[in-house]
Specification:
Layout (H helix, E strand, L loop, with lengths): L10 H23 L2 H8 L3 H8 L2 H21 L9 H17 L2 H11 L4 H22 L3 H19 L11 H14 L3
Helix pairs in contact: 1-2, 1-4, 1-6, 2-3, 4-5, 4-6, 4-7, 5-8, 7-8
GO molecular function: DNA-binding transcription factor activity; transcription cis-regulatory region binding
InterPro entries: Homeodomain-like_sf (IPR009057), HTH-type_TetR-like_transc_reg (IPR050109), HTH_TetR (IPR001647)
Keywords: DNA-binding, Transcription, Transcription regulation
Length: 192
């Protein structure tokens, strides 16, 4: 008979596990309706342990928003932009990267819940700061001017909302109005 050894998780691994459970719970129920005991249950830890790790539900939600916005920034920074790309080509590369983010279903939902909960001063401050960083990053990485950056971000938010409604992305419900919008976006981003 072999002995089974149990490997204990490090504090960092346990924290990451709780954060992942929180992203899932907040994506499903939003900030106000999500309870820390539900997050604890999903993570397989006690509710006091969740509080010990993150302090408050607000701090945990802000950590989730940080994770979401950092993921967008990482996707953009890792976009395959050729050194000789013009702005349109660079924006297309960022758009392809954003599709990766949208496919991570919970993350766009948490982003939308963060925007919706921005009346809370702490959440609003965090969302405004991070959204502004993402907006500025688009221009920095692509050379886009204000109008190009605004259009890119606006299209990204439209796709985020459509993905949340399940009319864009994988397993999308096909509706004529959504298809019209998606076809128009595709045509606008095709190389000339």
């Amino acid at each position: 008979m072999g002995e089974t050894t149990r490997t204990r998780m490090t504090a960092a691994e346990r924290s990451a596990q709780v954060l992942e459970a929180a992203v899932e719970a907040f994506a499903e129920s939003g900030y106000a309706a999500t309870k820390t005991d539900e997050i604890a249950r999903r993570a397989g830890v006690s509710q006091p342990y969740v509080i010990r790790l993150f302090g408050t539900k607000l701090q945990l939600f802000l950590a989730c928003l940080h994770e979401v916005c950092s993921r967008i920034e990482t996707v953009f920074r890792n976009a395959e932009i050729a050194p000789d790309s013009d702005t349109a080509e660079a924006l297309r590369a960022l758009g392809i990267g954003y599709e990766t983010f949208l496919a991570e279903r919970e993350l766009p939902l948490v982003l939308l819940h963060g925007a919706a909960a921005s009346a809370d001063p702490a959440i609003g401050e965090h969302m405004r700061e991070r959204f502004g960083r993402i907006y500025r990053l688009v221009g920095e990485l692509t050379g886009a001017d204000t109008e190009q950056s605004r259009r890119f971000v606006a299209t990204g938010m439209l796709l985020t909302i459509m993905t949340a409604m399940q009319v864009a992305g994988t397993d999308a419900i096909s509706l004529p109005w959504a298809t019209e919008i998606l076809d128009d976006i595709a045509a606008a981003t095709e190389p000339c």
